[in-house]
Amino acid sequence: MREFSEDYLERTREGMWDDSRRALEPLALGSRERVLDVGCGTGELSRVLAAESAGEVVGCDADPALLERAREHVPVVAGDALRLPFPDDAFDLVVCQALLINLPDPEAAIREFARVSSDLVAAVEPDNGAVAVDSSVPSEERLEDRARRAYLEGVGTDVALGADACDAFDEAGLEVLETRRYDHERTIEPPYGDAALTIAQRKATGAGLADDRETMLEGEMSGEEYDALRSEWRSMGRDVIEQMEDRSYRRREEIPFFVTVGRA
Ligand SMILES: C[S@@+](CC[C@H](N)C(=O)[O-])C[C@H]1O[C@@H](n2cnc3c(N)ncnc32)[C@H](O)[C@@H]1O
Question: Methyltransferase type domain: from which residue to which, for each copy (predicted)?
């Protein structure tokens, strides 16, 4: 199972769903009685669901450390998405966010969601192949694109699932009701917060890139190509920090997420 740190999840979800929740409308949260958020991690989606629904929201994840954090927002239960510890029809909505992209067999998980839902099943999944970056450091967009492509080639699951989640719903035997797009926009601009400073430091030290080294080398990238990328990457990170020092650094990233809703 791919593991995620608390820090990574909170950093990458910051501001998500704060600007608009229109893409969540097909989940009919206002009329749900029991909602399950599978692969809830630190509960970033769970707390949005709890805010929008009068019903009970329960978080479920296989990682007990992340559940400790999610517990601050909603009641939680430890469990595997492929063998949920709930009886048939225990919820009227089962939803996940950025879970299917991490599973080798997303259809199996969707079938399991359908088993425990008496009505709706939904997935909020990004297309990590279509992320757009705009930065005041000229090399940042090109280097991030290079790193992203190398990661996509090496990773063993479909991290660009996005809008194609509806095909997985189809294959799992669910009726797809609707797919809506939500662009999660992340901006860094002065005054810079702690998260922005951490991101910049991780660029300058190469730590962020190193996290994905093994995955990149699983694809077509050679060790020499990785080392060359790392050297350019660290230099780009130093440029980011330099621009931050004179408050001229600006970065905007748009990650397309697709909300697919089906009937169990
Ligand atoms: C990218 S994170 C998404 C977390 C959260 N939904 C969010 O959007 O912030 C994926 C989550 O799925 C969990 N996960 C991965 N495989 C799982 C499995 N088989 N069963 C339950 N949880 C799983 C991980 O522990 C992690 O918390």
Answer: 36-116
